[in-house]
Amino acid sequence: MRVPDRARRAGAVLRRPDLVLRHHGHEVWCPLCRVRFRSFKDDWNRPNALCWLCGSHERHRAQWLLFDERPELFAGRRALLHFAPEYCLRTRLTRVAKRHAIRYDTGDLDPTGVDLQLDITALALPDAAYDAVLCSHVLEHVEDDRAALRELRRVTARDGWCLVMVPLDTGREQTYEDPAITTPEQRRVAYWQEDHVRLYGRDVVDRIAASGFAVEVIRPREAFGDETMRRARLLDSDWILLCR
To answer: Apex CA 162: angle with CA 113 and CA 42, to 5°?
Structure first.
């Protein structure tokens, strides 16, 4: 069985507890695993980004800070759907779901290691099937993201929420996509990563709203403050788009 890249990365971190001890300190803090370090691990394209223990990125830490500050997001929920589940979040959400008696389903186009094989542009799910949905850093890989957003809206219950995050160029007003950009090299230059098909700008909010969602924009610095931004090493560009 092929092990997904995200699982291999998580396993590599957890198999090397010496790294956790070696980098233990007080400068930075991971809200997911609650461990402090001198600094986080460098990622391939930016320094001081990854938790040495759970492998969280900046966006995962921002999401968990939001969940910590808004426990009502899980209170009374019946079913949570998590697209392309990351190890660090999946571990914590499994515990939360058990505590709140929430059915927790994971889904991806690749069926390896998830509960449901799902095409986000044509979800084989009933209307209003979930009252909590997590879709982080997925839409930038999807050719027809408008179809995906319509499907997210369809399967999200009226009294529920859908948390969306995407790589975002906050200095760009309009989302950039060009069908002539097809090679990995071209995409890396234009969209920051070879498997991305667009680079979102600030109009992502309108793009999501057009699917029928009301969108609350949560900007990390405004939501969590300068000191938490520094200690959790959050990114200003990691807008959390809480859709209802």
So the answer is: 60
Where along the chain do its domains lie? 57-243
Instruction: Assess contact for 148 and 227: CB atoms under 8 A.
Output: no
**Cβ density class 80-111: b for 16+ within 10 Å, e for less:** bbbbbbbbbbbebbeebbeeeebebbbbbeee
Q: Are the beta carbons of 112 and 2 closer than 8 angstroms?
A: yes
Name the CATH superfamily, with its identifier, for domain 57-243. Vaccinia Virus protein VP39 (3.40.50.150)
Let me know: does 167 contact 238? Beta carbons within 8 Å: no
Give the span between the Cα atoms of 201 and 76, in whole angstroms.
Answer: 34
Please state, in angstroms and rounded to a whole number, the distance separating the CA atoms of residues 157 and 139. Answer: 20
Distance CA 174, CA 170 (A): 10
Over the stretch 5-28, which tens digit does the pLDDT of each residue have? 444 444 444 455 777 788 888 899
pLDDT digits (tens, 9 = 90+) for 100-138: 999 999 999 999 999 999 999 999 999 999 999 999 999
